[in-house]
Amino acid sequence: MSPKKRPVLLHHRIRIFAVLMALALLALAALYAWKLYTLSP
Amino acid sequence: MKASPSHLFKWTVLYVILTLSPLLLVIAGPMKSTRGFWTEFGVALGFVGLTMMCLQFAITGRWREIAPQVGADHLLQFHYAAGIGAMVLTLAHPLILFYADSKFLSYLDPSVNLPRAAALTLAVICTVLVVVLSLWRKRFKLVYEWWRLSHGVLSLLVVLIGLVHVLQVAHHTYQWWQTAYIIAFVGITVYSLIQVRVVRPMQMKKHPYEVIDVKAHRGSGTTIKVNPVGHDGIKFDAGQYAWMTVGPSPYSLQQHPFSFSSGEKCGHISFTAKPIGDFTSSWRGVEKGTRVYLEGPYGAFKLSKSAKTPAVFFATGAGITPIMSILRTLRDRNDMRKCVLVDANPNQKEILFLSELQEMEKALNLEVIHILSRPEPGWEGRTGYITEELVREVIPADCKHTDFFMCAATKVMNMVEAELLRNNVPIHRILSERFNIV
Lengths: 41, 438
Description:
The complex is a heterodimer. Chain A is mainly alpha-helical. Chain A has one helix and no strands.
C-alpha cells in the first residue's frame, strides 16, 4: 500500500506564498541594484 | 475563510508596489554616482526590510477595508511568514554591506559614533527578538499579554530606528520629496498600531457593555452574557468574533479574540470559553455588572447565504462556540438546510450545550455526532477521537457544494483539512479559525 499523499493545507499555502513573495522582493531588489549600478554616471 | 482571487491579486500587487516604492522613487529621482552592485543591493534590502516591517503594522491593523476581503485568518498567517521574511531581509542588509565594503562596519563602531552604533545594535537585537518571541512564546513561558506589549514596542523601536537611520544616511533620500515619502510611509503604517491600541479603545470607552449573567456549565466551560449600555450593541454575523476586554478600562493589555456563542438576533451577546489561560480561567469569578468592551465583529467563519447549501461542522471543546452561534441563528431563521456536527470532548460533563443540541436535532435538519475520548460508564455513543474514517463518513456526496467548518485543536484541524482535501473538497469550501498562531 502506497503512503497517502499529504495535501498542502491552506495556512501552509499562505506561508509558502509569503516566502515566495519575499524571494521575489529579494530578486527585484537585486534587479534594482543591477540597474542602478549599470545606469549610474 | 473565503477570499475571492481578484481581491487576493489586488492586495498582493499593492503589497509588492508599496514594499518596493522607496526603490522606485530612487530610480525616478536624479541618479547619483555608482557605489557598486553589492552596496546598492545591501541598501535595497534595508529599504525592503523596513517597508515590509511597516506593512506588518497595517496587516494586523484590523482594517475593515482589508480584513473582510482577504480574511483575518489569512492575514495573520501572512503576517507570521512575512515577519520572518522581513527579519531575514533586514539582517541581510548590514551583512551584505559589510561584505561589499568593510568601511560600513564603522556604523556599529561606538568609538566612531556612540548613539548611532547603540541604536543600530538595538535595532538588530529587537528585530531578532520580535520574531524569536513570537515563534517560541510558549517555550519562553511569556504570558500572552506581555508578549503582545513587547511585540508592539519592539516592532515600533525597529521601525523608528530604521527611519532615523534612512534619514541620517540620506544617500537615497536627499530630495525633499523622497524624505517626505519615507516619513509618510512609516507614519501612516505605524498609525495602524496607534489605531488598534489607542484610537479604537477610545471609541470603545463610549460604547461599553455590562455583564448580565455568568453561567458555569457542567464541566469547565463558562458563558458570559453581556448587554450594551447606552447604545444598540454590535451587529454581527453568526460565526464571527470580537476582541474582548473585561474590566474598567478598554486600554487593558488583556484583550483577547472570542467567538460569539449567541445567535445573531438573540437580544443579547454571549461568549463561551473553557479555561485554557489566565484570562479564561478567571471567567467564573467575573461579577454581574462588570464592564466589558468589545471591538468587532471580525471573521468570515460564516454560512453561505443560500439556505440550500449544506454544512458540516467539526469542533473540539470550546470550538463549538462559533458553531453554536450559527446553529442558534439557523433555528431562529427556521433554516432547514442539512447540517452535521461532529463534536469531540473528553467526557459527557465537558460537552457544552448538550441539552440544547439535543433539542436542536429535533428543531433543525441537524445530526450531531458526539465522540468522547474518556467517557464515563454508561456512555453509549462513540468513543475515541475524530479520525480520518469519521471525516470520510460525514463528507456528503455533493461535497463540492457543502460548507465545512472547523474550530478545533490545531492537530485535529490539520488532520480534518487534509482528509477533506484528499476527498476532493474544494479549498474555498473549508472554513477555519486558527487563533493560536503564537
